[in-house]
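Much of what follows relies on a compact textual record of a protein's fold. With that in mind, consider the following protein and its fold in token form.
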Amino acid sequence: MQLESFRKILGVRVFQSPGVVSTAPVTGVSSSPLSSKLTLGAGKADGVLNYMPITVPSGLVGIVTDTSENSATVRTILDPLSRVGITVKDKGGQGIAIGQSDGRIRVIEYFEDEKIAIGDTVETQSRGGLFPRGILVGEVISILPKDPNKLTIEFLVKPAADIPNLIEVSLIKPL
């Protein structure tokens, strides 16, 4: 079991962030139209800090928002209060990803460098943000009609991580 945890840490360290420090079990999932949170079976005693990004090998999960001695609360990227700076891989541009209660992510205020398309890969874009750059967020599944009065576009993303079914997550040192 511990060997598998080390393999996951190594995978996250190589493909997402060299700042990964440990893994933690998911002990609870809470989802409603108003929030999407996870409870971790690790806390301050295990080195968990507020604002630690949380990932799995498949992609971004969220960020630690509260810690106690032996547990922590994670606001997932599906939470309507979540805000993640993103870009579309290999196409540039930047926008803000906001969670939705239907299990998708809505990207708003996206300034395109190149035209995006359904199937494009969305990843974190950290310019002074909380998340390291280049962590997979998901895939573009719908491009919403453009408001002719705006310079930006909006689109929907299917998250890469299967957040409601997670068993264990990786914790990354806060930026």
